[in-house]
Amino acid sequence: MLDNPEIALDLPEVDPETGAALGDLPEQDWVSDHAVRRIRKRLGLPKKAAQREAERALDGAEVSDFVGQFRRHLDWLRHRHGLGASYRVTRNAIFAFQYGNLATVLPIPVQYRNTVHAQFERMQKSESVGSADLPHRTEHLGETT
């Protein structure tokens, strides 16, 4: 039904307004017009690149990947926009999804940009090393488990 299967799992099976099964509804674009306008304005991308940027956002970091004040900021956004909102963070922006559709794009506040870039660097390094190569927690104490 939707092009983004990761988010489609969060959707209800029945449309609350019409009562029709969502599988019976015609396919729709999951990037709202508002989100396209925000991508163009806030990221400076052309209209045709908005869909590709939204697809890249699905690979972005989740709220649970962050700690500290930026995590509190993301939690505040989630509280502000309701329980149906989920966020993905890229190096450039915060993408807000509402019930499986990309609703809007928010800029990363200036005071958190260095934190976000550092977190992405740590995530990239940990992916390149691999979890099998990491030492166990108690190995530095002389114990190996």
What does this structure look like?
There is one protein chain. The protein has five helices and three strands; from the N terminus they run H-H-H-H-E-E-E-H. The protein has 145 residues and is of the alpha+beta class. It has a domain at 30-125. It has a three-stranded antiparallel beta sheet with strand order 1-2-3. Strand 1 and strand 2 form a beta hairpin. The radius of gyration is 19 Å and the shape is globular. 17% of the residues are buried. The model is unreliable at 133-142 (pLDDT under 50).
Key terms:
145 residues; alpha+beta; three-stranded antiparallel beta sheet; 5 helices; 3 strands; 12% strand
Oligomer category: single chain
Residue share in β-strands: 5-15%
- Arithmetic mean of pLDDT: 77
Shape: globular
Enumerate how many helices there are, as a single number: 5
User: What is the string of SSEs from the N terminus onward?
Assistant: HHHHEEEH
Which structural class do you get from the secondary structure elements? alpha+beta
Please state how the strands of the largest beta sheet are arranged side by side: 1-2-3
Radius of gyration: 19 Å
**Number of extended strands:** 3
Query: How far from one another are the termini?
Result: 47 Å
Share of helix among residues? 25-40%
Largest sheet: 3 strands, antiparallel
- Show unreliable segments: 133-142
